[in-house]
Amino acid sequence: MNGRDVDLFDKSLALSADMEEEIARKNRKADTIIMKDEYEQVVGFMLNKELYGIDILDVEEIIKPVDYTYVPNTKPFVMGVINLRGKVIPVVDLRIRFGFVSNPISADSRVIIIAHNEYNVGFLVDKIEKVYYIEKKSIEPTPPNIPQNIERYVKGVGKMPKKIITLLNIEEMLKEGGSLTPKTGSTMEVVKNG
Description:
Elements: H1 17-27, H2 29-35, E1 39-47, E2 50-55, E3 59-63, E4 78-84, E5 87-93, H3 94-97, E6 110-116, E7 119-125, E8 127-135, E9 139-140, H4 148-151, E10 154-159, E11 164-168, H5 170-175, H6 188-191
């Protein structure tokens, strides 16, 4: 499934007006063509009071947390699996994955459904911020002060006028196992401990 051809977010959810506007703007082909060479579009979210971003083309949708089914013998950061319109998708608690203390799910918590290459996974995050347009020239390599447990998942930091956003490398996050579900394959093969 090509990220450019899907409706990125389930608009029945309580998303902010700003987020709705950014999504609508992203879906207008003229804007996307003009901006893609100079800007990177990322979905910004909060985790442990820090701002992180995932490339918008890897985001299939954002949902409120739903009941999940625990799968025995999985990695500690895999909460379980959910059935999302017929697809079985593992849900990863990014707080645990990054070595932070787990937080109870709140009204602001969201699950970002990732569709990258042939894989689907859900990332539980503390709060969705909005879609950011980050100038490519303002993206810098990973700074040395990024904690080691997160460093391998970071592809750089985007500098904005009043904030810095840590940009995540989905490719690296999916490599380590415990979070991959081929869109057409078996979940059990990929979420269990080796």
